[in-house]
Amino acid sequence: MQTTTSANEARKGWLSLLAKAPPARLAALFDGIGDRPGFTWLRSPEIGGVMLRGRMGGTGAPFNLGEMTVTRCALKLESGEVGHAYVQGRDKAHAERAALVDALMQTGQAAALREAVLMPLEAERAGAKRRRAARAAATKVDFFTMVRGED
Amino acid sequence: MYVAVKGGEKAIDNAHEWLAEERRGDPSVAELSVAQIREQLSLAVNRVMAEGSLYDPDLAALAIKQARGDLIEAIFLIRAYRTTLPRIGHAEPVDTGAMACDRRISATFKDAPGGQVLGPTFDYTHRLLDFALAAEGLEPHAEEGLPAEGKMPRITEFLNKEGLIQEEPRSDQAPPDMTRQPMEYPAGRPLRLQALTRGDEGFVLSMAYSTQRGYAKNHPFVGELRIGTVPVEMEIPELGFAIEIGEVVLTECETVNQFTGSRTEPAQFTRGYGLVFGQTERKAISMALVDRALRWEELGEDDLGAPAQDEEFVLSHADNIQATGFLEHIKLPHYVDFQSELELVRKIRAEAMDAAMKEAAE
Q1: InterPro entries annotated for this entry (chain A) (predicted)?
Q2: pLDDT digit string, tens, across residues A32-82
């Protein structure tokens, strides 16, 4: 059970990363590793809407905020592993690549794939986040108190 | 009597072809790409996503291009597209406490932990036209600082610790969805917030402004305004666990309102809440003020008869697509309706004329 939980955590990690990855970057990295394995569709790519929710006051009861576009698909490799993808936006090729990565991460290619695809995506994402946070930090106000000369 | 009228197909086709040509403008000027709109008119894109109620910057940019910059027309296009999308499901409520903030300010606490982070704001600009922007090829450069680690704490939490602000009870009850069932009144706060977040910015702004000017006055302070990115998590049935399916930029505004107490509530601060897609702070602040005004009943306040206290009035007029649909339909052919009114007025006048003639003759 413990191993299932940590396996799920790891899988959640890469599925979440793939969902948010810029489609062009995933395409460049994934298409660079060689031939695609054969697969059959369990669910061919489908574009839909997911309703987002917020909480009143940020922490209270939920309310519906509006939808976002999501593309999902599921496929099965010839070797039997099943890959799923739920990715932001309307790019079917992106969903297909994400599902292929998910399936291949369950095979002997996992280490190679992690190195060639997931680690660069993760690093670029962290870099972009850091650059944005640094720009925000530069706009933090430093207050100084004016001394009134009354006495 | 209903009379079907055919005709005008050729005129309509030609009108639409001319529209396409006018949309393109002077062909000697380079054409706008959708990516340029997405990147360089991002606040327009944000507004279209918020009021179109669909988070997809590329689609919103396309809609703006197609609508020639008419944002309500663009919102209309997004709403129409939205209805064609199968609903995959719903996400977990976003955790705005974990937001990666681009901006975070408080008008109530100068030394708020986490600090006052201005972000890319128009505030403190002089509102003078910058003619340098008319020249191309400028490469702006933003300074970098040292980001703080960890979450940005919520301002209202400090007040909450002292019990000075009304509690926001947490629940996981599934909220009603106005896109799935027709509105009924009283709508309740979850539906109000859904309607306000997709409501017309101008309308919500004016309603909020009316409360500031004294119609259902409720003394708001912006306790906190934050803009930034939050991940969107969704439970995936076929996996049996939740994953992040994307991330969105949101603007959140929490107002802290003076409240002297009522028959049912002690003196304390009360809250108004705004949460909107994109960097849309005018809308988020407006939403928070209107949310607070509409809570008069649950807080035991008096009904002052102010427009912003009237839930049905506010919610049924906040949607610019409904409003413009009903308003603009009156320009479409009403030949038969008008013909009948014309005949009616002629008949009344003729009768009145006859009666007057008769009277004169007698």
Answers
A1: Phosphonate_metab_PhnG (IPR009609)
A2: 988 889 999 999 999 999 999 999 999 999 999 999 999 999 999 999 999
Write down the domain spans for chain A: 2-121
What pLDDT, on a 0 to 100 scale, did the predictor assign at position A150? 61
Whether the complex's predicted ipTM is more than 0.85 is answered with: yes
* Angstrom distance (rounded) from CA A145 to CA B330: 60
d(CA B24, CA B31) in angstroms, rounded, equals 7
User: Domain locations in chain B?
Assistant: 9-82, 96-121+151-167+176-324, 334-361
Note whether B113 contacts A: Cβ–Cβ < 8 A: no
pLDDT of residue B267: 86
CB neighbours of residue A140 within 10 Å: 17
* Residues ≥6 apart with Cβ < 8 Å to B283: B47, B50, B201, B204, B205, B251, B274, B276
Assess B240–A contact: CB distance below 8 Å, yes or no. Answer: yes
Q: Is B149 on the interface with A (CB under 8 A)?
A: no
Phi, psi of B104 (to 5 degrees): -160, 110
Residue of B nearest to A64 (CA): B194
Q: How far apart are CA B74 and CA B60, in angstroms?
A: 7
Residues of A in contact with B82 (CB under 8 A): 49, 67
Confidence grade of residue B361 (pLDDT, cut at 50, 70, 90): confident
Q: Which of B259, B284, B264 is nearest to B274 (CA)?
A: B284
pLDDT at A42: 98
Residue B20 has pLDDT above 70, yes or no: yes
Contact A42, B171 (CB under 8 A): no
Chain B CB contacts of A47 under 8 Å are 85
Pairing of β B87-93 and β A82-88: unpaired
Q: Which of residues 255-314 of B touch A (CB under 8 A)?
A: 271, 273, 275, 277
Stretch among A81-90, A138-147, B227-236, B300-309 having the lowest mean pLDDT: A138-147
Dihedral sign computed on CA atoms, order B174, B175, B178, B179: negative
